[in-house]
Write a structure and sequence with these properties.
elongated, transmembrane helix
Length: about 120
């Protein structure tokens, strides 16, 4: 396990930040960059060793998959109009998750209470 100030952690941190940016760009690319981001999460997961980095990867992956699930539910409910509200809620939830993740990453803090 590498120390928090090591070159390995800095490299992992850059990868994590890049993935957060890809997710944010997903709002402008119809989700295509978010798909690229989740693929990167799975491809790089075995290379990530630092507990802080692992927590961010899990946060990103859960954000993506829960967002997909609730988007599908909202799409079905859009037939009944209430699903449109669901898309608004999902948008703000997704933005919150991206911002919270980037803020904690900038402070070298993990997600889920990882120090």
């Amino acid at each position: 396990m590498s120390s928090f100030g090591s070159q390995d952690f800095n490299s992992e941190k850059n990868t994590i930040l890049f993935i957060y940016i890809l997710h944010a760009l997903g709002f402008f690319t119809g989700g295509l960059t978010s798909i690229a981001a989740i693929i990167m999460n799975y491809v790089k997961l075995d290379d990530i060793k630092n507990p802080i980095s692992v927590s961010h990867f899990k946060w990103q992956m859960r954000t993506f998959w829960w967002g997909v699930l609730w988007s599908l539910v909202s799409l079905i409910l859009a037939y009944f109009i209430i699903g449109l509200l669901g898309f608004v809620v999902i948008f703000f939830w997704f933005v919150y998750r991206l911002v919270a993740g980037m803020v904690n990453l900038n402070k070298d803090k993990g997600m889920y209470g990882v120090a």
